[in-house]
Structures are given as C-alpha cells and as structure tokens.
Amino acid sequence: MAVNGKAQKPAGHVWQWAARTFRALRYRNFRLLWIGLLISNAGTWMQTIAQGWLVLKLSNNALDLGLMGLVRALPLIAFSLIGGASADFVDRRKLLYITQTVLATTALTLGILTWLGYVQVWHIYILSFINGIAQAFDQPTRQSLVPRLVPREDLLNALALNSMAFQGAALFGPTATALLVPYIGLQGAFFANALSFGSVIIALTFMELPAGAAAQRTHSVWEDLIAGIRYAAANKSIMALLLIGAITSVFGRGYNAFLPVFADRVLHVGIQGLSVLSTSVGAGTIVFAMGVASLGPGFRHKGKLVVVAALTFAVFLSVYAWSPYFYLTLLALFLVGGLNVAMMSTINTTVQTLTRDEVRGRVMSLFTIVNMAGMPLGQAPLGWFIDRVGPSVAVSTGATIVFSGVLAVVLWIRQLWVTQ
User: Fold this and answer.
1) Which residues make Cβ contacts (< 8 Å) with residue 141, sequence separation at least 6?
2) Model confidence at 217: pLDDT above 60
3) Cα separations in angstroms, 323 against 62, 333, 400
C-alpha cells in the first residue's frame, strides 16, 4: 500500500467525475423529480414494448404501428402551443397533477381491456390520442419547470440527467418486460405503468418550489401563442436547433416504433430479442447522457455537439437498417440511442438557455412538437413505406434525408456552428 496517498487517486478521480456528472441531484427539488421520472419512465417503456408487440400481433401490419404514432402526434401538434401557454400562465405543479393522472388512467384502461380479452387496435388508437393531449400539456410544463429547480449554470447537467431518466429507463423497462410478461401477461406491463405515474405525483407533492406567481395574461390566448412563435423565429440559433430537431424526429427517430418489425421479420428473435434490442438503445442513452451531463458549466460548443451528433446519428441509423446480424444491430442501436439523447438534450438545454422565463413555456411547446410530435408524425408514412419496400430500405432512406437536411440547416444558418 502506498504511503503517499497516490493509491487513492483513481478512486478520487471517480468521485470527482460522479460529483460533476450528477451535480444537479444536489438540489432536493430536482432530485425528487428525477427519481420520480426514472420510476415512471421505466413503466412507460414497459408499456411501449408491450403495446407495440400487441398491435403487431393484433394486425400483423407495420402501418398500424405507424398509425398509432400518428394518432398520438396529431393532438401534440394541435394542443402543444396551448399547453405551453398554460405553463406560462397557470400553476405548473397543479397542471402536472392533472396530466399525470390522465396518463395513469389511460394505462389502467388499456390493462383492463387486455386482461378481459376485449382489446382491439382501435382501442389503442383512442387511448394514444388521449395520451397525446395529456402530453401536449405535460411536456412543455415539465420542461419549463426544470429551470426553477436548479441554477442556470447547472441547467445542461439537469436536462441531460432528465434525458437519462426518460431515455435511460429504456434499459430497465424492456428488461422487466421480457422477464415479467411470460408471467403477468401484456396487461401486467400496462398495470405496472399505471402504477408508476404515482411516483411523479408523490415527487410533486413533496417538492418545495420557490415562491413565484404565474405570469399575468395581458393579451388573448392567440396573441400570446403568436408572441411565443415570433420570439423563437427571431432567434436564428433557436430556429436552427428546432429545425434540426424536427428533421431528425420526422425522418429518423421514428425507427424505435418499428423495432418489433426488425425483431420479428428481419432478425427473428421474438419478444425477448425485441426487449434486448430496446435495452441496447437504453444502454446507449445512459452512457451518452452521462457524457453530456459530465460536461462542465464552461462547455461552449453546444452547437457543434448538436450538429456532429445529428450527422453521426444518421450514419449509424443506416448501419442498423442494413445489419443482418443481431450483435451488429445491438451496437448500432446503442450508438443511435446515445447520439439521439446527446443531440436532443443539448438542443433542449440550448433553447432553454436562450429563452426568457416569461415565454419559456410557449417556446418549449415548440420543442415538444419537435421532440414528441415530429417522431410519431413520421411513423405513419414510414410504416407505409416499410410495408412496400421493406424495413431496411425505408429506414435507411430516412437516415439519408436526416444527414442531408442537417447539412442544409448548417449551411443556411451558419451561426449554429458557434452557438454556445
């Protein structure tokens, strides 16, 4: 054993890295929310895997998987701006109580229908539409709440950890699905998801938010919505970031909904293999989210990070599309999932940093449309394309559009490359 203390240096480095990577968890309010989201999103991923498999077995049609995303995207597009305006002008915690309760109720309803043997694809469409409405209010409200929980210098870290809680739960949810579904059935995954929303409600209850009244409405709802859009459009960096998010969401990020197709028709690995594929995506998100979270407050290359992550995401999405080998597919999905979370969490952070608090909810509603509506919006045409030309051609075509589109945005708005 060394007497000069050098033997302890590696452990010290690990401790310093962990303290830097998870520094936003020092704040009690954010810690409560993060733990609640980690539990809730594990349940959500359980439902995502089970629901996709259920739809495929009920219809045996990739288009139905895409339509499920479309019916969820439509209310996100229609109501997200209203949800963002609500986040600016009402109590955000009370609004989240309502949205979380609605999401729990739809999961419970799907579980009961599946348990009784009455479930049909159109039931899932209706429940997905209701979920989309709830998410249109939930996402901009939750995103705009985070800057009130941590100091500005730790916002990148907090949002990266937030992404880890959302995407990284994919590491646990699919694994739990593979292990539990043979014993509890698909309905058990839906019941578990319904129960998991209670963790967020409990976290909201115990949070001690700083005093601060909601903004006072001085114009009509329509004028407030237009003001938020104009604010985002006037800032070239915000506009470029949202454009990149939209391109990757519509043409690239929808691949996840069709993992059941690749598992069943390309790799022939069943629902257990499907769970492993989704777990690989989750593992990638955790590793890359931790990497983004470890970036210090002085990191000044957010624009470059977004561009490089988006372009590399497109490259490995093509690798995934054409891979005939299970382990190569796992590696590609690991990188696709990780690059996706690095890109979207950095877009989120940068947009939040560039936005004033009084319009934050409305601007974040645009990010919600990009992040959550863009992806399912692209799933319906992708499902149609898969049924006609096959999954490999369809997904790789989308990847090519992503790569070309991101390059076009960078060449058009060169300010993005130096955005801090």
Assistant:
1) 83, 86, 87, 92, 95, 96, 99, 361
2) no
3) 19, 11, 16
- Is the four-CA dihedral 366, 367, 370, 376 of positive or negative sign? negative
Q: Nearest to residue 377, comparing CAs of 80, 1, 178?
A: 80
Q: What is the pTM of this model?
A: 0.72
Lookup: tokens for 248: 């990757």
φ, ψ dihedrals at 227, nearest 5°:
-60, -40
Give dist(CA 387, CA 392) in Å, integer: 11
Residue 364 CA to residue 362 CA, distance in Å, equals: 5
Residue 215: Cβ-neighbour burial (10 angstroms; 0-12, 13-18, 19+): middle
Q: What is the mean pLDDT of residues 364-389?
A: 83
CB-side exposure of 109: number of CA atoms within 13 Å? 15
State how far the Cα of 114 lies from the Cα of 308, in Å rounded to an integer: 43
- Of 385, 406, 181, 144, which is closest to residue 274 (Cα–Cα)? 181
DSSP 8-state code for residue 263: I
- CB neighbour list of residue 76: distance below 8 Å, 6 or more residues apart: 132, 135, 136, 368, 369, 372, 373, 376
Assess contact for 158 and 24: CB atoms under 8 A.
yes
HEC string of 72-123? HHHHHHHHHHHHHHHHHHCCHHHHHHHHHHHHHHHHHHHHHHHHHCCCCHHH
Domains in the chain, please, with CATH?
25-208+217-418 (1.20.1250.20)
pLDDT in tens, 100-144: 999 999 999 999 999 999 999 999 999 999 998 998 899 888 888
Strands (E), 252-292: none
